[in-house]
Amino acid sequence: MVIGIAVIVIIVLLAFWLIGTYNAFVRLRNKTEEAFSAMDVSLKKRYDLIPNFVETVKGYAKHERETLEAVIAARKRAVQSDSAKERIQNENVLDATLKDLFALTEAYPDLKADQNFLSLQNQLSRIEEEIAGSRRYYNGVINKYNTRIEMFPGNLLAGLFGFQRKPLYEVQEIYERENVKVTF
User: Fold this and answer.
1) CB of 96 closer than 8 Å to CB of 89
2) 83: confidence class by pLDDT, cuts 50, 70, 90
3) Which domains does the chain have, with CATH numbers?
């Protein structure tokens, strides 16, 4: 009788633990999707702004067609990404092409003085700050999720329930990781 009650108590405790662990995985998975969605909203704002920005630059830098086309192509690839991993890779390419576009504008003093350009540049800067914040939030949530999946004993259940590791947003370009050289 005592053994029967002990077995029932152990089974009930195990059931509560399984339910709690599963629910924790679901809660973290939903937070990762919410974090990605928040980042996606900021990226959409940037995608919408890029064509206006490119058109403004195009008016001043007609012979810089290659750089402008690279920005548009990178934007298109990022918008059409199918997975989070592909989106992250394509976003890194888009970031690099936007830096090339900003570098290009330095060669055109009239462009830097254009009010429309300045307004678009300010909007893009604000959006880039939003994106950076949402990427930090995304990485924080992904880190909690991945840690929960990999730690014992949760890792035993994660595979059983189909919870898989998600990619962090990381800088892909080596030159972006290097220290900035400031010379006067």
Assistant:
1) no
2) confident
3) 2-171 (1.20.1440.20)
Altogether, the residues listed in the chain come to a count of 184
Cis peptide before 51 (omega within 30 of 0): no
Residue 111 has pLDDT above 50, yes or no: yes
Cα gap 54→57, rounded to integer Å: 5
What secondary structure letter does DSSP report for 83? Answer: S
Concatenated DSSP letters of 98-154: HHHHHHHHTT-HHHHH-HHHHHHHHHHHHHHHHHHHHHHHHHHHHHHHHHHHHSTTH
Question: What whole-number percentage of the chain has pLDDT above 90?
Answer: 29
According to the model, what pLDDT value does residue 182 have? Answer: 38
**Which amino acid, residue 122?**
N
Q: pLDDT-derived band of residue 23, with 50, 70 and 90 as boundaries?
A: very high
Report in angstroms the alpha-carbon separations of 28 from 13, 22, 107: 22, 10, 47
CA–CA dist 101, 20 (Å, integer):
50
Q: Is the pLDDT of residue 63 over 70?
A: no
Q: How much is the pTM?
A: 0.71
Q: Give residue 168's identity as a one-letter amino acid code.
A: L
CA distance 158 to 164: 7
